[in-house]
Input
Amino acid sequence: MVKLLNTNEEKPDEGPRFLNQLITIRAMIKGFVVYDYEDKNDEAIEQMAEWIRNGQLKYKENVVEGLENAPHAFMELFKSKSFGKQVVKVSK
Output
């Protein structure tokens, strides 16, 4: 088994070595650019809002209280300590 990128490692595989591993296991990378679908933005927001209201789509927020904790919350993004949307609540 080929070991690929693990975001929890101190120094993940990168560059040509990583790409060579992908080729070795015949992996395919496919994605899209969100701006290619910019004309469908309003439709997507409406549909996702409906799914959230109906409970068909769930989301997670990691809420940190207080502006003084914003730097710590920001750094947690790079340590895989947070999940979903990182939010800093500055007042009630």
The chain has a mean pLDDT of 82. The beta strands are 61-65, 85-89. The chain has three helices and two strands.
